[in-house]
């Protein structure tokens, strides 16, 4: 008897998941159709690779944000963190050029530092929220200000520029491509797959969900809550550093306006993708779609004169609100059926 | 005129109410008459449909078929608690108060008295003082809800109901979390309300209480109406029999003799922690050790400290003769020590998740294969647990929060047992669950002990501690007052130790 129920359950389960996953995917397909109708060049190979490359930054950061948010936290510092890391990377590479020369070693040193800085910055956010028992919103609001002012200070209010000789070596990381796909897209794909596996196939992912769902239950269930929560911020830091590594060669510079509002775009991507803001339910696949949707909106506006490009933020804002509203409707229905 | 008037004796009547959720029927043609000025107990096993019936009577659910009569006239009750304006108030088990606001603000929440847009604080305070005096409780109207005890919060809910001129007050297990003294106080208030002509419907699993306070009793079983009778004509045993539909002679399993020579698996010497003062005791292999005492006596605190959930100030803990200090729950679990919380909703289960992730959460490392989770093994574990613990749900895919209390408790037990502990501490094993499930849980605990697992039972229900323990430790104000064995394990002795009338001299 239990066998019979079990098999029907999995069927129901699949259908439910389908409805939930389908939302962001349908939205993205609709956007693509609209884009194509407005201008057939939207679906040209050049535009699509451009679109994917542009989504990579926000997408990679948003994968990290999915873990933080699923475990019931929030990280507002990612945009400033990216700017600060970019600034320090550029300073380190410029000064290392004198001893190491403008070669691969310099670039690798820069990337290595970027990763260490990202892990460290994430760890600080994590420790302050868990051991320091300060709310994540406050901690990351604080570090957001700190990192932002640090990059302004390093750049002395202006712009930090990477030496031209190094740019030549570093350039392929953004502009190069492997097997027809730009490098940033590959990084995005790898981060997305790793993130998905981590969230859906490991104990760590299950622990994040449990903590976001009910921290007390997690604590009583032998979960090292502080450690797992700190880990989510460390993962977020790692994702920021990876995004920065592929971002720096794009312009070869960093200033106080680098990465402004990335934190909000990342959080928006996560929420559009169906992750619940108060934690307990996270979807990496949805986050990827969310990042693609956000970039696609901007891209379509570029392609058409119908709506001014300056209204990009308006369109993104509308999409976020509509996405969450649709999710709400879905949750409400599920609830009504239950009780 | 005169002939018709007496015909309306009941204030609220459920007439052949049926209710289905989707295709699942929950109530089958249930009728219940509630008279003014009576205390009407609604009893039944978990999942019998009591909650559903209460929600229908207070308008939170609409019946699928059948009629609701209010003062003899057929009505459709307004949804979402709006029936309060008609004088029908449901007090949920999870009290519905704004924790950070004061008593007075809570009582007038949503219908504050104002004059020209400004709050009339003075007037509201006077009124609230009046209500509180009416039910005879000593709470300041300006006290913050978060500072009150659970019993006091409940009183505030009752005062709130009175302030709404409630004619029918429906309460879901009002005494489940009250101590005996608080329950007595609560019953006195119920009597006062009754004298004022308020009809009181309450659900309880404590049948002796039902016998004590109720005028009439309605019994439900599996969604069917079994009977409504005068409470005087029923004994608690007869009520249990009506609920379960069979004789319950063997509520407690036969106890196998404790082996006094068995090795001591847990020894605690002079443990000090928050609310715990110099506690010492030992636990043998295959023994069931009861922990009795009043609520707040520090029993939970002892085991939370031992299991790494709360800091230890001083003392010695020996597991299998080796001195140990568990830094966190994970290290306790790895050593085979598991603690099962009494607060299954807030600390035990993820209510918005399904059964599988809940079952394996405590022992998740066991299900990791090459860095990934073995979902197939988890599914098998769930199938096993459902069979072993007889977990019954109408749909195995529902969220745990929608399961009945008894099934949640069984799942929690399954979750902890999934880690194969050698020492298991069960805090309030049967809180808020029905007689039939209680019996299953007692038998399960006895079987565990027979297999050689050592079990600690922390319980505020004395018959339970007496019925299943080999030895009983009685605590009061964070201290061990005495350890009872054999024939000394009886209510009289336990109460005397728990109340501080008697204390074992320290040897």
From TrEMBL, chain A:
It is a multi-pass membrane protein. It is found in: Cell membrane. The chain crosses the membrane at residues 21-39, 51-69, 76-97, 103-124, 136-155, 175-198, 230-248, 284-301, 307-326. Keywords: Cell membrane, Membrane, Transmembrane, Transmembrane helix. It comes from the Bacteria. Pfam families: BPD_transp_2. This is ABC transporter permease. It comes from Parasedimentitalea denitrificans. PANTHER family: ABC TRANSPORTER PERMEASE PROTEIN YPHD-RELATED-RELATED, RIBOSE IMPORT PERMEASE PROTEIN RBSC. InterPro entries: ABC_transp_permease (IPR001851). The keyword Transmembrane applies.
